[in-house]
Each structure stands twice: as structure tokens, then as C-alpha cells.
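Example noted here:
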Amino acid sequence: MLYGDAAEKAYLFVHGQCGRKEEGLAFAEIACPAEYQVLAIGTELYSPQDLSVALEPLASIIRKCEKARSKYEPTSVQYRRFHGTIRAMELSRQLIENELGRK
């Protein structure tokens, strides 16, 4: 589930076995007013279609973060922050793609 308007900052909320999407919603209600977007995932709760739908928002976040990161020097705090976000989103995308390959 993707919560919030498009934003340059995002949280990845991963809930595991016995988790519920409502947990992600509760977190999003705190994060979204602070101008964050929240992607809540827990692969055992979502159909292949749900997982596929999540791939484009992830790709969008990656593109936006890469564009923003390009404005900074590699040694800057901002660059490193975007780098970490990009890496987290890439890992999320890979996990979803791996899960789709198993279904």
C-alpha cells in the first residue's frame, strides 16, 4: 500500500508474518503530514497484482531521489542520505520482484 502524496522523502514500512496493513496506515498517519510518502509492504498479505502495482511507485521514488542526489557532491550529507534511500528502495524492488517470481 502506498500512502501520502508524492514526496521526495519516503519510508518503507515492512510488516512480517501476522502483520496487518492497518499497522502501516497508523504509521503513515504520522509520517505523511511531515511530507513523507509511506510504502507499506508485507508480501504474505498481498496478491501478485498488489505487488506489481507497488513497483512503479518504487521506481518513481528511485528516479526522484537520483535526480535530487545529482545536485550534491558525493561527500555531502545530503548525497549520502539520498544514497541510503535509493538503496532501500532498490532492495524493496528486488524483494518484490523475487516474491513475484515465486508466485
In short: The longest strand covers residues 9-14. The beta strands are 2-3, 9-14, 36-41. Residues 2 and 39 are 5 Å apart (CA to CA).
